[in-house]
Amino acid sequence: TFPSGMQLNQIASGLPNIAIPHLEGSLVQTGCLVVVHFEIPVAFKDLADVSRILPVSWAFMLFNPELKQQPLRMAQLIRTLTQSPVAKLQRLFAARKPTQVEQLLPQLLAATEKE
User: Fold this and answer.
1) Which residues neighbour 17 within 8 Å (Cβ) at sequence distance 6 or greater?
2) Which of 2, 15, 55, 97 has its CA 20 to 30 A from that of 47?
3) Is the whole model's pTM more than 0.85, yes or no?
């Protein structure tokens, strides 16, 4: 229902559309980040323009039980996915194995967390 799609191709050509769906903290028991690559893009409302529907190839589903931490985690994830070096983002989005994503994403998050 709520918009969470983002066009990363505005940052660099060739980057995919992504979505960052998330739940209210009261509905979450254990915090985690689930990354999903869709072989067939899924429609999400655009965060920047809710009247637009984006075909999304990657979803970063944010689960955080602490209500006060939710905006901070969301901001960090958005910052990571919009401000990381393009070459590193391209490497992340070229990953096709969970182990590759598990290796690359924490490095990107840690780098933007320091900023």
Assistant:
1) 5, 6, 7, 8, 9, 41, 44, 54, 55, 56, 57, 58
2) 97
3) yes
The residues, any chain, with a CB within 8 Å of residue 62's CB and separated by 6 or more, are 20, 21, 22, 23, 33, 70, 73, 74, 77
Q: What one-letter code names the amino acid at 67?
A: L
Q: 49-102: per-residue pLDDT in tens? A: 999 999 999 999 888 877 777 788 888 999 999 999 999 999 999 998 999 999
Distances (CA, A) of 62 to 69, 87, 93: 11, 24, 18
**Spatial contact of 57 and 18, defined as CB atoms under 8 Å apart:** yes
| Main-chain phi, psi angles of 73, to 5 degrees | -65, -40
